[in-house]
Design goal:
about 375 residues; 2 domains; Immunoglobulin-like; 5-stranded antiparallel beta sheet; single chain; Rossmann fold; 16 strands
Length: about 375
Amino acid sequence: MIRSRQSQGSECFQMEKLIFLHIEKAAGTSQRALFYQSFGKENVYWYGADPNRKKFRKDDVDKSFVIGGHKKFNFYSRSCESRLLRWLTSGYKESDFKPDTFGYIAVVRDPVERVISFFNYCRTQEYENWSRHKLDPNSLGKTLHKSRTFRRVIRNAQCRYLSGAESFEKAKENISKNKFVVASLEHIELLNDYLIRNIECVDRTLNKNNAGKSGYKEEIDIDDELKEEITELVSEDIKLYDFINNECYGLFDNISQNDWNLFNSTVMDAATVPKLRISIKTLRLHNDVLSAQVELHNESANEYSPDNCYIGLRLFDAEGNCCLERRNLIEPIRSQSRKTFLFRAEGVHHEDFKARFDIVDVNNKRWLGEDTVSISEFEFSR
């Protein structure tokens, strides 16, 4: 985490990542395409976007500038809890803690229209899964009456995405006290213009993806009674949508220009990191002494001259806990060259440890992933 301590009791956290809260059937897939085009797919971690992204693995998430997927705000806010605990045990006041390392983006949609679109998606593209939950592909009304799961999923879902609670007031409070940008689907162009103005690398084009086929509403029978029933289920979402679409004129913005400047600086700095690769030549455990020899390859056209960066070895036990770390300072490496590093650690008693090598800076930020440093993980053998 990049941070600067100004004085005891006051700490300023830099906005490091953008979190897109992907509400179903509210232009999330289109926004994902925008982020892919702008940051590069390797720098965007979108939960569930491909078979390899069904879990939030720390190493994948750490290297990403944008994180998205069908996860709600409270999923990400939990990561601040351990940070708050460390803060309190260090003698600081809870009121001074500012968990501002995430900036959140979301798009909300007319709640009744969203339910209809979501039902169409479930019956046409996810019916095999939803059939187990009593979804009737021919009737939204029967689905509401028979499927408790469907009712639970759609009930004030947009408020829950933005706050974790089925309450407009809670959602409004949460987006007001955190770094949030929220747009209505009807004013999606305002969001894209906003991103173009504030993010230096953002692509200026946007293609609509994952849109339902034209005319699907005519295939779904909606009468006044059914519409009233849906309205009751999404009453808090309607208040939220009206607030964003009408009172905020389609775009709510609570991220400062300074936050965007710092975020852009982080993105641009990372973009200049040369293409590096770690290869492990030897890794042995003998008489409780671990020895390793690794090479760091600079495969770019420029010299790699890091400022106080290290190549690090970490040992993890069977539960995934880091129990030992060693670091070697990295000196400049010429283009298309390599350097060798030796590691030695005594008192390694277990065979079921795993080793991981990466590059780490003085702020404890690690560069991992195929585009910068390949992660190599080995099981020890005597």
